[in-house]
């Protein structure tokens, strides 16, 4: 369906350096990761990859092909005031021809704004061994200029379904909040300070993950992360959810990130995430290989 989308939306797919991929695990836990998108205007799918040595994203997409791609970080895209775009789609995992995937990844990485994989294939060749995940869009939400206060433009579905939180698709398993004590970490304090916004992902009634970038702040006394101003038209419901924040360090050379999984609850007139698992140091697309290069050169000695 991408060929029928507005050119501005296709430009987001083609020019963004990062998209946030959400998969849903067997227990119903959505998990969001920053990855690099690969897309040609009019193509039937948007593609992302994962390392052959760490295939978690591909494994989850194979077990549950309902996934989401959120385009919310316009850094290095060259697009002025682009929309935020959410794609809900069906994933197909492609690991049939590792050699073809390797060649494609090396070629396409050179075309990305910060692509470096093709230039280091001799040093870190195993990194080029990738699994592709092809995401065929089934529903697309567009927030013009990233304004989450307004209802999104919706393609290939009825807005009434979004407002009501119901879909013509049959309802699927939805994991309720797990409950239990909050698992706190000092890193959580970075939400709302170092990271003013984060990607919130949850599971819609029809089983598709839903993700949106939202402002957040930490309530340390209550031991939860509050969602500031829940976006209009979002199918919020109590259940398992994930907050993912990612950014680049000084000089765009030190990727950093934070992922918080837990229970999405409605409390004190707001939605909040009660943390149960905190992970730091997410792999971000920008210069994944850069931290390795100085060490590799130092071992090799002067040339």
How would you characterize the overall build of this protein?
This protein is α+β, with helices and mostly antiparallel strands and 303 residues long. It has one domain: Electron Transport, Fmn-binding Protein, Chain A (Pnp Oxidase, Chain A), CATH 2.30.110.10. The chain is 15% helix and 36% strand. The protein has helices spanning 7-15, 56-63, 98-111, 159-164, 292-300, and strands at residues 19-24, 30-35, 46-51, 66-71, 84-94, 130-143, 153-155, 197-203, 209-219, 224-227, 239-248, 255-267, 270-280. The strands form 2 sheets. Strands 1, 2, 3, 4, 5, 6 and 7 form a 7-stranded antiparallel β-sheet that branches. Strand 11 and strand 12 form a beta hairpin. The chain is globular and about 50 Å long.
Key features?
single chain; 303 residues; alpha+beta; Pnp Oxidase, Chain A; 6-stranded antiparallel β-barrel; 13 strands; globular; disordered C terminus
What are the secondary-structure elements, in order, as H or E?
A: HEEEHEEHEEHEEEEEEH
Q: How many strands?
A: 13
* Rg calc: 19 Å
Helix count equals 5
* Biggest sheet overview: 7 strands, antiparallel
> How many domains?
1
Q: Specify the helix fraction band.
A: 10-25%
CATH fold-level label: Pnp Oxidase, Chain A
CATH class: Mainly Beta
Q: Which structural class matches the secondary elements? A: alpha+beta
Return residue spans where pLDDT drops below 50 for at least 5 consecutive residues.
115-121, 157-167, 249-254, 284-303
In percent, how much strand structure appears in the residues? 35-45%
The overall pLDDT, averaged over residues, is 83
**In one word, what is the shape?**
globular
The CATH level-2 architecture is identified as Roll
What is the assigned CATH homologous superfamily?
Answer: Electron Transport, Fmn-binding Protein, Chain A
**Alpha-carbon distance between the termini?**
52 Å
């Amino acid at each position: 369906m991408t060929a029928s989308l507005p050119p501005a939306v296709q430009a987001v797919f083609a020019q963004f350096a990062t998209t946030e991929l959400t998969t849903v695990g067997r227990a119903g836990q959505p998990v969001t990761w920053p990855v690099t998108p690969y897309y040609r205007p009019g193509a039937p799918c948007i593609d992302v990859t994962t390392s052959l040595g760490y295939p978690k994203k591909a494994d989850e997409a194979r077990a549950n092909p309902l996934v989401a791609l959120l385009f919310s970080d316009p850094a290095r895209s060259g697009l002025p005031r682009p929309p935020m775009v959410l794609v809900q789609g069906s994933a197909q995992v492609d690991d049939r021809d590792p050699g073809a995937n390797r060649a494609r990844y090396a070629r396409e990485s050179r075309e990305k704004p910060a692509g470096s994989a093709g230039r280091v294939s001799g040093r870190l060749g195993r990194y080029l061994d990738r699994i592709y995940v092809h995401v065929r869009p089934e529903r697309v939400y567009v927030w013009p200029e990233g304004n989450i206060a307004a209802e999104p433009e919706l393609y290939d579905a009825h807005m009434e379904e979004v407002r009501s939180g119901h879909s013509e698709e049959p309802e699927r398993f939805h994991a309720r909040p797990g409950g239990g004590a909050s698992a706190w970490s000092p890193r959580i304090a970075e939400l709302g300070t170092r990271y003013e916004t984060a990607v919130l992902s949850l599971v819609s009634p029809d089983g598709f993950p839903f993700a949106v970038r939202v402002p957040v702040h930490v309530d340390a006394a209550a031991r939860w992360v509050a969602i500031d101003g829940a976006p209009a038209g979002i199918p919020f419901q109590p259940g398992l959810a994930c907050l993912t924040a990612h950014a680049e360090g000084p000089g765009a050379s030190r990727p950093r990130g934070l992922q918080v999984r837990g229970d999405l609850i409605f409390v004190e007139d707001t939605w909040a995430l009660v943390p149960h698992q905190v992970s730091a140091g997410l792999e971000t697309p920008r210069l994944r290989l850069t931290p390795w290069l100085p060490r590799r050169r130092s071992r090799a000695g002067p040339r």
